[in-house]
């Protein structure tokens, strides 16, 4: 069966249960909130094939272009020939392979300048890693302080922990301090994204960490969009701010800048040992294919080496080019020095219209709506990658400028009429 829109309307309900889902889907459709998948026929990259067209893609999180790096692809193939296609079991039974162990040791060594007595643990996904850390460190008797704009995987981890939860306003650490002061729970856990995934701005970690140390709280940092990209050597946000503390629990994902998949937690060895004993999303799941871990060893080599430096320098040049190249009358580019460069349009239908227009011109940008972002702030989420050329980024900025100008003029006429 195809997944196109007409199915929602024409399919006759056969049962009241189906009917209620169809009614709710129709409601979403009316609010322009139905999400659709586009099938990609090529590998990831600056350009890709989708729906019979060649598109310039500015929507992936493959920030360093490693998803198609020949050495990473080769390592994945080698990993499959060495270890087979699947791991066969969970880590605590017989699924923990030499490749997983080597990756964890490599990541611990890489992160050690910014992590006290560093040890690392590899997870199938960042989503699962976040569930693991939060539920293992915060139980029913704990208090969790969660940043307002945290990623869904952190929010779900907080819910699953059953801890008393307080949400603090975006980057408002004075408000957080009041909450910590008033807190009587012994176990305290503060949870934040480093780079906010839909805004591109960076949490102010130095004062946040100082607060956590002062009030004896863990600080869980989700660096999905920082690992590999931020910091001189790619060690992410901790290197960016030059931080190191036993209170820090660091989560980096490996499906974005590292180009493969999975995630890792880096923390004091005691924390990692605790996760191995307690984290249910680590214990009760089949280990990721060892070949992925084998490929990731090559990703980490590239990230931490001279080529990583070159790719980060190129990416940073593109980020500056894009933000300087935009000249918007109607829409707003959010302030961001990272590869996530969102252009806020506001209305869902208007934003979808613009994203569709860009697509017609061969540009694929992320089209982000509520509930992923607050109501009224639908946005184009442009993501840049070291795989892009300067010309490609220049062309995108020009295309967005043109559409903004046209919408601005249309709005002026509408106001006059
Ligand atoms: C992508 C993302 C995750 C989830 O990581 P996966 O490995 O894709 O499951 C977690 N946190 C943030 C901020 C992310 O952007």
TrEMBL record:
Which reaction is the catalytic activity of this chain?
6-carboxyhexanoyl-[ACP] + L-alanine + H(+) = (8S)-8-amino-7-oxononanoate + holo-[ACP] + CO2
- Looking at the record, the residues that make up the Aminotransferase class I/classII large domain are 54-400
User: Record-annotated residues binding substrate?
Assistant: 35, 151, 372
Which positions carry N6-(pyridoxal phosphate)lysine?
A: 256
Q: Name one GO molecular function term.
A: 8-amino-7-oxononanoate synthase activity
Q: Which PANTHER family match?
A: 8-AMINO-7-OXONONANOATE SYNTHASE, CLASS II AMINOTRANSFERASE/8-AMINO-7-OXONONANOATE SYNTHASE
Record-given protein name: 8-amino-7-oxononanoate synthase
